[in-house]
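Predict the 3D structure for this chain.
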Amino acid sequence: MIIIIEGPDGAGKTTLARDIVVRTTARCFHKSAPTKRSIDEYLLPDGSSLVLDRWHLGELVYGPLVRGETDMDDETFLVVEDKLKARGAVLVVLNPPVPLMVARLKERGEVPLESRLVLESEAFAAVFERSRLPKWYMPVPYEPVFVDNVIAWADQHAY
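Done. Predicted structure below.
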């Protein structure tokens, strides 16, 4: 099972990933997006489940916002999606209201720019629709009780 958690900064991705790992035997990776690399380099030989705290959709959002362009062209996006789909990957979508993300970032000691979070949120909404992976839209506000629901859903939709 591969669970990919995507969303803007402050959406709760790392919290959710940590909560999933605590309840399963999955391993968690917080990595930059794959471009020409294969998902295979992250898979474990023993077939352990993976939780990816941000992955390929993040590159489609943050590449243009941070660098002015993405390193992932359309062909690479489709290849990555096909490889993930073949491995039974699922996408957990976190895109809470901007004020909630602002509050979460402030709790972490960061100084969030609300205008940037609006851009991130809008960009993620667009790329979520572009993905062909099975999607779980995380209810807001996030509650730890949802973790078991996410795990059960991922088990049903993997492969």
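The first strand starts at residue 2 and ends at 6.
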